[in-house]
């Protein structure tokens, strides 16, 4: 019950915050994860995951507006809120619970709880969802896929080169795509969230004093005529 309430709270928090700023979120065999070491041990991973300076940096290779940066930061924050409780969950081939979970099931549940978006169960089907993007277009919430000798692996991008995933050697953890292993076996990325759209410009508010001055000027001109 507590986990369910926390997941619902994360979705509601993200939706309400984005709405205030004028943003919105639209709505086989089980693959095994590559056996590669995570970036850090459990304690260091938790600290790295909670560090906004690490996980909220976005758009490493391009410039974005302040509004778009804020949007991506909120997406990354919502992923962190939901993913925090999963850190350290052991990997289990075919697993779908906190007693053990594989990479595609973890991504499916994380995306469902954070964004209320339903993904299919396996990497073989998840890789066809959304829109394919290039690596230099990655922003928080995108899916990142890796492939080694036909074995597929998937995680959720956090920003600044980091992604959260269920590693076969470390369980649910945070790794960096800049490491030799993940960089070597990177396959492709998919965008499952709506593209960022800046909020429409708001009309300038005119003070009552300014309105009265304009009306007085108009009245004066009418009298002269």
Describe this structure as you would to a colleague.
With 225 residues, the chain is of the alpha+beta class. Helix content is 40%, strand content 18%. The protein contains eight helices and eight strands, in the order ααααββααβββββαβα. It has helices at 2-20, 42-50, 52-55, 66-83, 103-115, 123-126, 180-185, 208-224; strands at 96-97, 100-101, 131-133, 143-148, 151-159, 162-167, 171-176, 186-191. The strands form two sheets. Strands 3-8-4-5-6-7 form a six-stranded antiparallel β-sheet. Strand 5 and strand 6 form a beta hairpin. The radius of gyration is 23 Å and the shape is elongated. It starts with a helix and ends with a helix. The model is unreliable at 1-7, 16-40 and 52-61 (pLDDT under 50).
Shape: elongated
- Following the backbone from N to C, one meets helices and strands in this order, namely HHHHEEHHEEEEEHEH
SS-derived structural category: alpha+beta
Helix content: 40-55%
Arithmetic mean of pLDDT: 78
Beta-strand percentage?
A: 15-25%
What's the end-to-end separation, in Å? 75 Å
Keywords summarizing the entry:
disordered N terminus; six-stranded antiparallel sheet; alpha+beta; 225 residues; two-stranded antiparallel ribbon; elongated; 8 helices
